[in-house]
Automatic annotation (TrEMBL), chain A:
Single GO biological process annotation from the record: transmembrane transport
InterPro entries referenced in this protein's UniProt entry, alphabetically: MetI-like (IPR000515), MetI-like_sf (IPR035906)
The UniProt record lists the keyword Transmembrane: yes
Native organism: Cryobacterium glaciale
Gene Ontology terms: cellular component: plasma membrane
Subcellular location: Cell membrane
The entry's keywords: Cell membrane, Membrane, Transmembrane, Transmembrane helix, Transport
The protein's name in its UniProt record: Sugar ABC transporter permease
Amino acid sequence: MTAPDLIVAEPAHDPAPAASRTLRRPPKPELSAGQKKALRLARTLVWPAIVVAILVTQIPFLVTIYYSFQNWNLMRPGSRGFAGFDNYVTVFTGGAFMQSLSATVVITGSSIVLSVLIGLGIALLLNRKFFGQGLARTLVITPFLMMPAAAALIFKWSMLDANVGMVNWGLSVLGVDPVQWNTDFPALTVIMVLTWQYTPFMMLILLAGLQSQSKETLEAASVDGAGPIRSFLHMTLPHLRQYIELAVLLGGIMLLQVFDPIAIMTRGTGGTKTLSYLLYERAFVGLEIGEAAAYGVITVLLTIVVASVALRLLFKIFSSEGAKS
Amino acid sequence: MKRFEMTKSYSMKKRLALSAIAFSSVGVLLAGCSGAGGGAQQADGPVTLTLATVNNPQMKDMEELKGAFEDAHPDITVNFVAMEENDLRDAVTKDVATQGGQYDIVTVGSYEVPIWGQNDWLVDLGPLAEADTAYNVDDLLPPVREALTVDDSLFAVPFYGESSFLMYNKDMFAAAGLEMPTNPTWDEVAGFARTLKTDDVAGICLRGKPGWGELFAPLTTVVQTFGGSWFDEDWNAEVNSPEFTEAVQFYTDLVKDAGEADPVSTGFTECLNLFSQGNAAMWYDATSAAGPIEADGSAVAGKIGYVHAPVKETEESGWLWAWNLAIPKTSTQQDAAWEFVSWATSTEYINLVGTTLGWERVPPGSRTSTYENADYLAAAEAFAPITKDIMLGVNPTQPGVNPQPWVGIQYVTVPEFQDLGNQVSQDIADVFAGRDTVENVLNKGQELAQQAGDAQK
């Protein structure tokens, strides 16, 4: 069969949508039969790569979706079967989901805001020339290089321990009674650890932003009479906008998955049961594979929604402010 | 235009084909999961056994000594896969539940043994043990054996076992002019704790870290001796009963008034630290804690007294836990596996540990004969006799005031319990912090428990 035959054989379509499509797309040049053959070969050759890419990236998610429709508790081997939407009903009526969602928003949100603010402060300091700048930079980055579990253990045993912790010792010097961190302030404890760990990451991105700002612009601003605060607010901050966006986006993606400090320090108590910890509990403590999978699917959908809608909205606010100045 | 339509439908077909490929791969994957459940064929010639175990000192000793077994059985090699307790539970549950067949011998806690046995996942070791006269199955401590038996089938044999008792710092008691009875009540203990509490020293250390195996191990024994229980005889939840409530109120009040600081952070390890540094006057926990407390490096070695678990309404209130060896039905080397299991849980092995590694390292709480061994009694005289008394005194069939439909003391042997215990213990953390009341928390727990109870009816 030749190509022109194919075109003739195509059933007639409603011309209106096709016409509107041509408005958006420039007409394609007619291809000769040989070119088409080459194109088909080229496309065929791409398929294996696409299949592998789909297998590697999408299979786990498809399997998760399949599991989320199963009634499957590992300890009850006889009861496995199709559950319909039961698991999703449990997710939305159980009450744990909304609590966990708000815990995730609070912990992730405050950790990001705090670490961006502190990171910005440190980046501004490190952006100046001084003796031992390189060493200071390396030292400041260290918390981010530490394994999350190790960081959580250090905070649990050395920093925040009620009897021998350094923080309580420091407070006692100031005359403050020892604080029971995990018992009385679980969410704050987790936020502290995360902020400590992610500040260097934010700092690195923002420092890169600061160093890409041209000195001439700042000089010009000061010649025009702008003080350091005005030139920071109106020159540096707009320049840093895309770096802050990047830092918030990457930090958000990483912090959404945070697990170690919660598992090691607070065990999901007092508003620290984030989605990832809840999912772990459903799968490995509850042994409800189907329910855990349903939580997983909902989490992925939510993350996609947040990533595409909320972040775009956030960046729009940022960019309109940037345009004003 | 037409061409565009053509490529569109062409790509649609392709897309359909692609998703078909994707879905069929899911099928292949699932088939892979459910396969591989072999029968029990006995291989000839050299055999390699894979043993999944928990990475605690007694198990490491077993690995160190496995050479003695391999010398006596030149055809059998044993590979140890040691994991942290929670990882072991996850890995072995997944392997056994999906019929993976990766392990020939598994280390199973006494909570899981009856559940797995009922799921038909484990080989009944009873006939094998009884056929083997040298093994002397009647020497196994009766309460432990009872906890591992379901409908007359012995699904695992104990490697070592423990109960719970009250440890107290004799120096602190002498300094305050207090005397600890051998069988204290919880009211007496609470009185001592409140007297001995100072700014630097906790009156008593009690676990507060959430988890069915952390907080609810000691707390369930308190509930039992206060006359409460998780379920009545017909699996009706009793979590918000007056007795359960009183017990939890007592426990949380005691910790808040006279216990350790930051209870939500405090589990077994944290209490061990506190107590062995002399920062707590009493500690109610596992009998296995005595080993590290009396070891070199402990600030309180030799200064500690051991008495029975405090009681209220019952005679005895210690818990019962054992790490056991079991053979999954999916193992293809069951006879060789039993050879090793029977060796590792035998009197012969206990003597081997005593003579080569030292008598204080003997795995305790599995056999009656251990407590008749003069060498062991000499090495562990501070706590061995009382451990034996408690382990023989506890009754896993009816630990509380009322009869219960399961065998087990500080846990309920149903699959839903670890989830239930975990969630209620997380809510009790709010009580420690003053964010919630005991009544509220237990009313929530009652609903969860009723769901778990309904699943058993």
